From TrEMBL:
NCBIfam families: PhzF_family
Active-site residues per Swiss-Prot or TrEMBL entry: 27
Molecular function GO labels: isomerase activity
Family statement drawn from the similarity comment of this UniProt entry: Belongs to the PhzF family.
Single GO cellular component term: cytoplasm
Organism, scientific name: Aminipila butyrica
Keywords for this protein: Isomerase
Protein name: PhzF family phenazine biosynthesis protein
Amino acid sequence: MVILPQGADFPTDEVMVKTAAELRYSETAFIKVLAADTFNVRYFTPAAEVDLCGHATIGAFYTLLQEGLVEPGKVYTNKTLAGDLNIVISEESILMDMGDPELFEHIPAGEATAELYQIMGLQAAGQEYCQQKPEVKLLPRKVSTGLIDIMMPVKNEEELAKIAPDFAALTELSKKYGVVGVHAFTVNGSDGRIHARNFAPLYDIDEEAATGTSNGALIYYLFDCGLVQPEQIYSVIQGEQMGRPSEIAAQVTVAGGKERVKVGGFAVTLATGEINI
């Protein structure tokens, strides 16, 4: 997380991409203070800028909390390329609005679905199984709460662990469908929770340990399937195969006939320092 000095503007895009590449994290957030309750955050992978990154937003506002620039019990505005988002700060967590949830087309059944699963190292047959509601058939679908990903169901944790993508082919598939990557998941977790893995080699991210935007899209996908209830907070476990397990909280709210998705969590400080550009 990079907090810009008071009154300073963002560096050039080239500098921010190079800084992200030097820091070697999947995303680096650059934070500009606009007012006491308003911030402008931009997100860069080592390859390019993205409109929004959920876990980097949580990290950004955790950093602002540690620096005394925000405080618990208040709501702040985060201006992003995906729109203006509300950030709710508490002592235990940071909960953020995702962009407007959108459902796009399913990946066509047959050859297209078989291609997707083959690229991910799996067979497509039987992956749509839902233990809680056998009558619900889960199918791969493009979904967004700020960034478009393919939601790819698998039948259990064993299948999830077996995923071994052909990253070159997945990069081309992501271009073909106009998505950031693939968010594979199972609702049939042995612990009763949702488990997920995220792959975005198009943006130099082979696998990611925590992906807020993708899990926001996932919880909305499951809401549309009738597997998630409004106002209830659900846990998604991600990063297990990387040895970096993360627990992401996700929620769908409905107010005034409008559906919103919130994703939350907390963070820890690994290191601090100053960057001179």
